[in-house]
Structure formats: C-alpha cells, structure tokens
Design goal:
CATH architecture: Roll
Helix content: 25-40%
Largest sheet: 9 strands, antiparallel
Radius of gyration: 20 Å
Number of strands: 9
CATH superfamily: Electron Transport, Fmn-binding Protein, Chain A
CATH topology: Pnp Oxidase, Chain A
CATH class: Mainly Beta
Length: 216
C-alpha cells in the first residue's frame, strides 16, 4: 500500500457535535429540513445550498453532479439548469432522482428521493430574470454536457450572445427549473462510536409521513 492510500485508510473522525432523536425532531420532514438548513446558513457553512443530484440514464448507468438549491416548499425542492444537459436528458427518460446535502461542519447529511417535474415557465422566467447578466448570457453560451474544442468556444459564444441580446437576454428555451417532489427523506447526524442517528420519513398509506429510525 502506498503512502497516500495508507493515510486514507488511517483517517478517523469522532462525530460528537449533536444528536437527532425522535422526540426532538419535527414530525414533518420539510420542517426538519428547514431547521437544519437554517442552522447551516446561520453557521456560515460554505455553500449550504449545494446538493448532489443523482439520476439514472436509459442504459441504467447512474451519474451525479452538484447543483444549487434555489427554492423549497411543500411542493418540493427546486433547482435550475440546462434541459439539454446529461441530467436533463436522463430526467426526461426517468424522472426518479435523489438529492443529498452534506454539511460537513455540522456532521449532517440529508437525503431526499422522489419524482422530478419541470417548474412552470413563469417560475423559470422569474428566476432567470433575477440572475446576474453574465449568468443569463452564460445559459445561452454553454451547450452543457456537449464536447467543445476548447474554452475559446464558450468565450466566443458569450461574446456573440452578449452582442445579440445586450442587457436583456430572454430565458433560453432549453433552460429552466426542476422540482423534486419527495416521497422519502433521510436525516443523518454523526454520533460517537459510529452509532450515528438516522431518521427516515416515508409516505404512509394515508399520505401522511411515517418517521422511523434506521440502523446506521
């Protein structure tokens, strides 16, 4: 075993910052998520809205990437991206997906599973209009997930669309929002001796949430 591999094998961390028990947790997973996200923001965790999105293609090959949470409510979890990207194509063929937040400093993980739908055009327009100008131009300039010959292609595209649209680029037809409608949540809190707290919420027969503890 080389030095780096041995160093990785020897990495250890004792998780002792907090606990998560049934009595202190929220009955509604959205309220529990809101509580934890608020604590991550208040704690100045780097990019607390960064989440890993997992999708599966028609070839059954899974893929992940980091996207940014841009909204959440009782309807679901929202982010925005290029519909023609790999994730967009995979979601078009299989709308089931999973999200994961990892707040390392708080020793917490949130996992969310469910079905993904597109947000309304009105919602996508409103968010697109709120973005900085260079980000709006970037949505036109980048043929996301496609092979390009070099960075110069992106720079040239940005210059072209900047000149074309000036200060008022419209939302590209290939760009907009997705919403994951959760049917399962998991909240993981690191604990000492690897006896971590892990609560799962799943939809029961009456459409209410069932909360149960899973072994870590």
């Amino acid at each position: 075993m080389n030095t780096t591999a041995q160093q990785i094998a020897d990495l250890r961390k004792s998780y002792e910052r907090a606990e998560l028990n049934e009595d202190a947790s929220q009955a509604d997973p959205l309220r529990q998520f809101d509580q934890w996200l608020t604590q991550a923001i208040d704690g100045k965790i780097p990019e607390p809205n960064a989440m890993t999105l997992a999708t599966v293609g028609s070839d059954l090959r899974p893929s992940t990437r980091v996207v940014l949470l841009k909204g959440y409510d009782a309807r679901g979890i929202v982010w925005y991206t290029n519909y023609d990207s790999r994730k967009g194509q995979e979601l078009a063929g299989n709308p089931l997906a999973a999200l994961q937040f990892h707040w390392v400093e708080l020793e917490r993980v949130v996992r969310i599973e469910g079905r993904v739908e597109k947000t309304s055009g009105q919602d996508s327009d409103a968010y697109y209009a709120s973005r900085p100008l260079d980000s709006r131009i970037g949505a036109w300039a980048s043929p996301q997930s496609q092979v390009v010959s070099g960075r110069a292609v992106l720079v040239a595209n940005a210059a072209k669309y900047g000149a074309q649209f000036m200060l008022n680029p419209p939302r590209p037809p290939h760009w907009g929002g997705y919403r994951l409608v959760p049917d399962e949540w998991q909240f993981w809190q690191g604990r000492k001796s690897r006896l971590h707290d892990r609560l799962r919420y799943r939809i029961g027969p009456d459409a209410g949430w069932i909360r149960e503890r899973l072994a870590p």
